[in-house]
Design a protein that fits this description.
The protein is mainly β and about 100 residues long. About 0% of the residues lie in helices and about 45% in strands.
Amino acid sequence: MTDVVLDLADLPPGTMKTIDLGGTEVVVANVDGACFAFGGICPHEGGSLGDGELRGAVVTCPWHGARFDVRTGAVIDGYTPEPVPVFEVRTEGEQLRVICR
Ligand code: FES
């Protein structure tokens, strides 16, 4: 399993991108210049969070509207008490490395 490296130019502030991190669907989000990576599958019934809406540091699931804090994975509200996992990211010059463990 290997890390995923993205060009920061492809992830402007306020946007998200879904990646495959060693077989796991992971979403990378740019929140006002700070990037975060979190599990892309909603723990409620499996909606793809990368297809949801990002507002500030909050992603809303496109299926039933559960909301998660992309910085911590914590549930803000919605149909599930379960958080999403978060993954380590590192900025390396003009690139962003999502760490695969
Ligand atoms: S699948 Fe995400 S809120 Fe239902």
